[in-house]
Amino acid sequence: MVKPAAIRTEAALGLLLLFITSVFLSACGRHEPVIKLEGQTMGTTYHVTLVNPGDLDGDTLKEQLDYQLAHFNTIASTYIDDSELMTLNRAEVGQWHDVSEPLYAILSLATEVSWLSQGAFDITVAPLVDLWGFGPVKTEGAPEQAALDRVMTMVGYEALQMDLMAPRVMKTHSLRMDLSAIAKGYAVDAAAVWLGSLGVTDYLVEIGGEMRVAGKSPRGDAWRIGVESPDPGSPDVLPVRVGDIAVATSGDYRNYFEEDGVRYSHTIDPRTGRPITHNLASVTVLDSSCAFADAMATAFSVMGGDKALALAEAQNIPIYIIEKTEQGFQRRHSSAFEPYLSSTRASEEEG
After folding, report:
1. How many domains, the chain?
2. Which segments does the entry list as coiled coil (predicted)?
3. Is 181 annotated as a binding residue?
4. Rounded distance, CA 177 to CA 54, Å?
5. How many angstroms separate the Cα of 162 from the Cα of each of 66, 109, 172, 256?
6. pLDDT tens-digit series, residues 78-112
7. Residue 102's Cα: distance from chain center in Å?
8. Which residues span the domain enclosing 324?
């Protein structure tokens, strides 16, 4: 499997599918002392649970975490006009531009996932998202072909060059980058590293549905997450036992528009410039890096079920997919995901 070194060395919408079930799955038995933090960041919410926090103070931790998340927004946000990312978006083409270590790490990983997925993941897709009406400014209906052709000239991860010897980048043509499909995962990783530096070994960090866990849950055993069915009328939840790993989910079943009987998903394929047309409803990815899992979940959503599973098998990536069929929702997973299901089954049998 490809190992994105920039993240793994800690160098610096469909999200509702995934939610924490440790709260109700751990409703019985002995509970360890915990600190719970929650708040707003990056246009969404965050939740952090620390188990056996020792002498750490919850109010102080929240203040420090909020400060760090606010600072991260000044780097990666598209909603802050003078953020480092937005400044880079406006920077001169054909010139090298110094960037901070965190932004360089994110851009490096994004480029790596783009290459791995053959362009299914591409942070330069922002103009296409806006063109199809899924950006901040809503538009009506599908765009004209001429407009699509024009916008496609502004899309392409290959136009972002990384200096391998220094944290600087160069755009070979005008680009507008959006890190929404990777930034939350990176922020989760950064928060996890920070907690580790404080000596915390048992925790859950979740931002906008992307999460990373380590050690033990408040019940004293492995953390559990639930993969919810995309069918809003179904109570079906798949519980999965995880430990020391990150989890990310992407799906297209909630955000779309219809025109002339055609359903247009909010998930745009950067390679065609058009919304995806396959039946993949959601994909859940496990990895040691939440940023990598976050980005790959988007890539797999663009690729579709068969191609996603083929790449996951080739790279030994644990993924769990749900596809919409005429008979209802169908579930499949990669071989690397099987151990997590097996551990859940074993736990249920023991219980």
Report:
1. 1
2. none
3. yes
4. 41
5. 30, 11, 11, 34
6. 999 999 999 999 999 999 999 999 999 999 999 99
7. 16
8. 5-350
